[in-house]
Structures are given as structure tokens and as C-alpha cells.
Amino acid sequence: MSAALTHLAVGFLLGLALRLPPRYLVLAAFIAASPDIDHLHLFVPVPFLETRVTFHNVFFCIALPLLVYGVLRARGAREEYQHLAAVSPVLLTSHLLLDMMPLDIGSPRVALLYPLNRDWYTMPAIKGYAGDPEAYSTITVILIALGLLTALTLAGLALVRRLQARPGTLFRQGPAAALAAVWLLVFPALAAGGYVIPAPAHPEALFSVQDPSLLMPQGRFTAVVAHLGGGVASRGGLALQVWVDGARVAEAKNDGFFSPGDRWVVDLPLAGDLRAATKIEARLLATSDKHTYHALTPQLRKSHIDVPLEALLERDGGGRALVTLKNEGSLPVPAKAIAARIEGTGIPAENLTNPVAINPGGSWSIPVRTPASLGAGQIQATVVAVDDGHRYLSRTFTVTPVQSS
């Protein structure tokens, strides 16, 4: 939203350009800022006021001042009063244009046609347009708008004077009609040129999705969404979704108002083993109209499951030695997530991965192949994570020979 000081400054500059008497320049500044009176309901309960609606429309900013001009003209009011009323549409329209221009990454929208309807209108930020914040500075856009508004008003006044000079012309008695013809065509002309369009339903803001990561084998998606500027997203107005091979598998929504400067930490559990997926995508979108702000591929971060494992030396029913790994944590260990190395003097070293998932409280037993000729000896069992090499344990056991099968 354009700041109140910007509206005041532009109104003052327009007053100078339109050759208002110096004593009316401050009044011109306040006329340009006056549509913001409808913001008062935010501080004082006024039922009929609505932000950027009640006074942010062509009826208040164009039709009403032209009506005042016509009344003053009919009553033979002082010329300076008539002049102030005649240029008021340009002062007030400057407010509408500034509020619709994407000068920042705010919510540039007004209810142009209120009270006929409450539809919002804005100006698109398209490269090459004067309102593109990436191509022009804010002050450049304001100066361009100032020049166009001044030229349009001066052209309108010149047209009125020319029409008045013609004998028998209709406008000799009603010059306000000429101004109305000029000013009431301003926004239709802008709309026809594509410079005024219906405002989208989604919040117009700049978001950043930082460090999107897929944690494996935990099966979790994490990211931080930062609000860099623009409109406020209401509760549940944003959704961060995870799509796997064209299907949505998880979604998180903001649980409160999301304002500029806020950060939203997302941590989503993902069902199933996603390591075989061909395409994984994270999408940040608006829930109102499904507008997609970002669609990106998360970074795969392989790491270990943070669970405590314990190793025991046991015997099976046939007397064979077994190294049994027990999951003493609260998370399951996915299949092929851990590797066990069993080695010792006279014992062939083995490297094995768990063939099935080890649930909490479950175990994985590994037979130890010791030759019958070996006397009592030691074996070492080392267990590491397949993905990042994290060492869970290293245990040494004394084992007596058993008949190998």
C-alpha cells in the first residue's frame, strides 16, 4: 500500500503542476490522501467504512468532485473554488492509481466500482510496464504517473475551454460534462490497454521456500517459508504440498496470520519408502485459487534413523551362534537402512544389510559362520547406517565353535 506521505507529496506536486494558488497546495495534498479516511474503521468502529472500498472508487474520486464542480459552476462560485473542484478528480485519481500500482510487493488493489460491486482491481507487474518494480524504481513510476495525470487534466481543461468558446455548444452551460467525459474514460481506457485488471484472489506477496529437504530414511520433508513482503496471508491461506510421481502425499497449511517478516517452519511426515520415486516436488500455493508461488525439487538428504540399537550374542535351536540386533527405540528402521559387519580371526567377514524393516521392539538375527576347527575366539560386530555411515555400535563377543551348516 502506498504510504500516506506518498499521497500527500503527490497531491502537493500535482497542485503545483495544475497551478493552484499557493494557499491551496496543502489542501490539494489532503484531498489526494482523503480516500484513506475509510481506514478509520480500523481504529474507531464505523459500520459503513471499509478499507480500500468506501472511498477508493470512481464514484467518490471522480463523479463526486465533478458534481461539486457543476454545483459551484451553476451557483457562480469564485473561480479559484471552481478550479480546485475541477482538478480534484486528478488529485483523487492519483490515490487510486498509486494504490493499484505494484510499487512495492504489497497488495495493490482497490474496489473501483463500489457500490455497484466489491470486485478488486489492480495493475499487473509485467516487464515493460511502468509499474514493474523490477524494471523501474518507485520514484520513476510516481513521476511517470504524475506527468500523465497532469497532462490528462490540462488536456481536459483545455478541451472544456475550447468547447466553451464555440457559440451554441452544449458545454457552454455545462463544462462539467466535458470533464466528466474525460475522467470517466480514464479507467476504461486503462483497462482496455491491459493496465487495470481484476485482482487475483490469492495474497499478492513474495515468499521464499528455504532449504527444502527430503530426509531419508526418516521419510520427512522439511523447509522454512519466509514472508519477504506484500500482503498478509490469512490462517490456512497457504499450503505447502509434497507431490511424488504426480500424486500429492502430504500437505501443511499456515496455522495463523502470515505477515511480512514471519517465518513458517514446515516438517511433514511422508508415508512409504520414497527412495524409488522418480519425481518429488514441493509446491507452495494459495488455497483460495490454487495459485502456485513456487514449485521446486527438494534436496535429498540421506541420514540415519536416530534410534538406539543393542547387539546380543545368542544361540539358535541348533546351537549356532547368532548376533541379534534389537531396536530399542520408538521409530522403525526401514529395510536396507543399516549395515552389519561381522568379522573375527578365522571367521570369514560378512557385510549384510537388514532385509526387512526392524520395528520398535523388533530384532534382526545374523548367524555367525564359525568353522568347527576354530577354538574359542572373538568376533566383532559393527553396525552403521547405510546412508551416512553413522556408527550405531561396535561390540566384541567371545564365541565357541559350532558346527557350520
Notes on the structure:
The structure is a single chain. This protein has helices at residues 4-17, 25-33, 58-74, 79-100, 138-165, 175-183, 186-192, and strands spanning 121-122, 197-198, 205-216, 220-230, 238-244, 247-253, 263-269, 280-286, 292-296, 299-302, 309-315, 321-327, 338-344, 347-353, 363-367, 377-385, 391-399. It is α+β, with helices and mostly antiparallel strands. The chain has three domains: 4-198, no CATH class; 205-302, Sandwich (Immunoglobulin-like), CATH 2.60.40.1930; 309-399, Immunoglobulins (Immunoglobulin-like). Residues 126-136 have low confidence and may be disordered.
Topology:
Elements: H1 4-17, H2 25-33, H3 58-74, H4 79-100, E1 121-122, H5 138-165, H6 175-183, H7 186-192, E2 197-198, E3 205-216, E4 220-230, E5 238-244, E6 247-253, E7 263-269, E8 280-286, E9 292-296, E10 299-302, E11 309-315, E12 321-327, E13 338-344, E14 347-353, E15 363-367, E16 377-385, E17 391-399
Parallel strand pairs: 3-10
Antiparallel strand pairs: 1-2, 3-4, 4-7, 5-6, 5-8, 8-9, 11-12, 12-15, 13-14, 13-16, 16-17
Helix pairs in contact: 1-2, 1-4, 1-5, 2-4, 3-4, 3-6, 4-5, 5-6
